[in-house]
Amino acid sequence: MAVRFGILVFPGSNCDHDTYHAVKHVAGQEARFIWHKETKLGDVDVVIVPGGFSYGDYLRPGAIARFSPIMQDVIRFAREGGPVIGICNGFQVLCESGLLPGVLLRNASLRFICKYVHVRVEQTDTPFTNALQPGQVLRIPIAHGEGNYFAPKEVLERLEANGQVVFRYCEPDGRVTEAANPNGSAHNIAGIVNEQRNVLGMMPHPERCVEALLGSEDGLGIFRSLIRHVAGVSV
Question: Is 0.70 topped by the overall pTM?
Fold first, then answer.
């Protein structure tokens, strides 16, 4: 059974084809693009909100995409338990849509950052990490100017208490340090899930590291986890 991935496309999306390639040609699953003006997701098992610069990041990243017609059905799909993953700009869209708490601010350096980083897997009881190991360190690229995760103290405390922090920036050996934090994110947060654990937002780009030729295959574990979650098989 092939898992059916729906990949949203907004004006300004630039990682949609990378995501399609990772899902279709590397992971061997079904994938199709869903234009932002559509109102129904159709027959999909997983929704991916890809990275890029939706609507040119005018106002603030994700603020306009949140009002695209398709987002109402994405919200419905998520609230009914469907797995949704937002990558980079997709993370920002999910926060703006209220599917995830917090906001993504300008990087502490006030500069766009594009490089490989290391993130530690904090939780493996999610649809996105069940094929990974607790404490596993992934080498994954980032490319963002607004990846500085912020939330009020009480929200951060709740995220930590509930085990909703899924990925954390770290050193190659897994140590969480200030130096390993590329953008100033609170608690070195690189990715979180909602309380129901079916919606993930992450700033690093797993779709850009699914083949050894690209320098890392570590991102493939996230897509394998989704396939295992939906189809019950390992790939």
Answer: yes
